[in-house]
Amino acid sequence: MNKRIEGQPKVTIIIPTFNNLKNMRGCIENVKLVLGADLGKNVLLHIQDGESTDGTYDFLNQLRSPHISYGVESDRGVYDAMNRAINKVVTDWVFFLGGDDRLLPGFVSAIKELHGPNIYYANVRFASDNRRYDGRFTPRKLVFRNICHQAMFFPTSALKVRPYSLDYPINSDWAHNIILMRYYPFKYLAIDVARFTDTGGLSSTKNDIAFDTDKGRLFLENHGYFEFFLCRSAPLLTNLFRLAKKLARYFKLHLQRTSRKYNTKK
């Protein structure tokens, strides 16, 4: 990574989008509001549009901000759009945001912590229930769930050397994290940096068959046999965990009902 020159912006926020003008307006206003003077001073914003037909281009063309750039070109999906945007980045760090996601004030605190050849990740809040997701990660935890993409700060150089694979249309970022965790220190920041829209997206409604097929191999090649076997048994362990939670809720309700009946008799 090149040494940052004092006074140059540190991070580029990339927003990949396609036919999402209804959310894009609010997203950009949110970025401006949260960043304030940091937009331009420490942060740049780049919107990568996949040739939308809903008026997005006209909207972007009217922004007229030296700190906000955009690219409009055909792509092969969200990860291709992200790769294309990364190639245009001139800052040392990259952060991704969805058009229906929102920055939180903690983002400004987080960018002050970015140093060295590390990958940083923080927390997001789910838009549906305000739940915090999801603390520290290890390769073993990564077997069961991914780090939220909207919680991560990447060295730009790392993403230029290892672009996102287009083999995985939904979970390429998960596959990417499995590989990157082998080569880079992952540093956790106990800060809430974004509000993530956790309903309605591709990852919440569809499966990535190619990723599901390759997931075990990715862990074996990058982390070893334990994670590989854990990956193979993950569906069974997940189902057992869900069953245990259901049983716990059942017995809790049963005890409450029994207690109420006993108190009524007394």
Can I get a quick summary?
The radius of gyration is 21 Å and the shape is globular.
- CATH architecture descriptor of the largest domain: Alpha-Beta Complex
Task: Report the major sheet.
Answer: 9 strands, mixed
Mean pLDDT: 91
Annotation, overall tally of beta strands: 9
Distance between the termini: 73 Å
**What percent of residues are in strands?**
15-25%
H/E element sequence = EHHEHEHEEHEEHEHHEHHH
Please name the fourth-level CATH homologous superfamily of the largest domain.
Spore Coat Polysaccharide Biosynthesis Protein SpsA, Chain A
CATH class of the largest domain: Alpha Beta
Briefly note the CATH topology name of the largest domain. Spore Coat Polysaccharide Biosynthesis Protein SpsA, Chain A
For the CA atoms, what is the radius of gyration?
21 Å
User: What oligomerization state is this entry in?
Assistant: single chain
| Portion in helices | 40-55%
* Tally of discrete structural domains: 2
Contiguous helical run count:
11
Q: Pairing-aware structural class of the strands and helices? A: alpha/beta
Q: Which geometry do the CA atoms define?
A: globular
Poorly predicted ranges: none
Features:
about 270 residues; alpha/beta; Spore Coat Polysaccharide Biosynthesis Protein SpsA, Chain A; 2 domains; 9-stranded mixed beta sheet; globular
